[in-house]
Amino acid sequence: MLTLNYDTLTVTAATQIQKDLRDDIVIQARNFPVNIIAGADISFNKFSTTVYAGIILIRFPELIPIGYSLIKKEVLFPYVPGYLAFREASALMGAWEQLPLKPDLLVVDGHGIAHPRGMGIAAHFGVLAKTPAVGCAKKVLCGKYEEPSSEKGSSTPLIFKNEVVGAALRAKNAVKPVFVSPGYGMDVPGTVEIITQCVGRYRLPEPTRLAHNIVNRFRLGEVPEGYTEV
DNA sequence: GCGACAG
DNA sequence: ATCTTGTCGC
């Protein structure tokens, strides 16, 4: 069992952890089938140290939910841009270990290697859980990109330090793009491909959207903690 | 020193 | 991230 606790960490210490974990990142073409994909997200009340984490399992490519793991946890590390994992990964790990079966690929709300030190939450979590992961964010953290054409499915490379670290992906016509990047066990083209296949009728790909949805309902007391099969 | 800054 | 009313467009 892997319990993460970043409560007493300083940002300086967190930076060192990111640099250490960076050596364990594996970026490569996907070499496994995806039958179950998962979405991970966090929800919390403003100014509260209680975070609600959730992971939803989804059959792929049908995009039908099969179950979700929800857990509540106290977290002291604040939100600091570039250090999201130190606030959210601990609770996510709780939800992860509560899963009766693991997904083939995890989609995390946030960035993968499209990060100042190449260690966004999707990479951070993927390395620690030793599981394939990609990041899907609503906003850029670092890097530059050309606006993708307005038609759904178009994408442009996200470049940071002269390196392609991800992509801006137009999931739907005439809506803002989402930013995807590999986290662990995936590469940029493979990440764009699979996320594209996860788009339903909304801007956010289903794993991210459904995870956000269920964890929010959990925070509001509409669904119970633990694992629920659907 | 000045902006930018995942959730 | 969360809260919130109204407005625009398919």
Outline the secondary-structure elements:
Layout lengths: L10 H11 L14 E9 L5 E10 L4 E11 L10 H13 L7 E5 L11 H9 L3 E5 L17 E6 L2 E7 L8 E7 L3 H9 L9 H14 L6 E4 L1
Parallel strand pairs: 1-4, 4-5
Antiparallel strand pairs: 1-2, 2-3, 3-9, 5-8, 6-7, 7-8
This protein binds two DNA strands through strand 1.
Describe this structure in words.
By secondary structure, the chain is an alpha+beta fold. It has a single domain (28-221), classed as archaeoglobus fulgidus dsm 4304 superfamily (archaeoglobus fulgidus dsm 4304 fold). It has five helices and nine strands. The chain has a nine-stranded mixed β-sheet, with helices on both faces. Helix 2 (85-97) runs parallel beside helix 3 (121-129). The protein is globular. The mean pLDDT is 97. The protein binds two DNA strands through residues 41-47, 79-84, 87-88, 109-111, 114-116, 120-121, 135, 137-142, 179, 216.
Helix content: 10-25%
- At the first level of CATH, the class is Alpha Beta
Query: Mean pLDDT, as a whole number?
Result: 97
Q: Give the uncertain stretches in residue-range form.
A: none
What would the principal axes of the Cα set say about the shape? globular
Structural class: alpha+beta
Cα Rg? 16 Å
Would you count the extended β strands for me? 9
The rounded distance between the terminal residues' Cα atoms is 26 Å
CATH architecture: 2-Layer Sandwich
Q: What about the largest sheet?
A: 9 strands, mixed
Written as H for each helix and E for each strand, in order along the chain, the element string is HEEEHEHEEEEHHE
Spatial order of the strands in the main sheet? 6-7-8-5-4-1-2-3-9
The domain count comes to: 1
CATH topology: archaeoglobus fulgidus dsm 4304 fold
Strand residue content: 25-35%
Number of separate helices:
5
Supply the CATH superfamily name: archaeoglobus fulgidus dsm 4304 superfamily
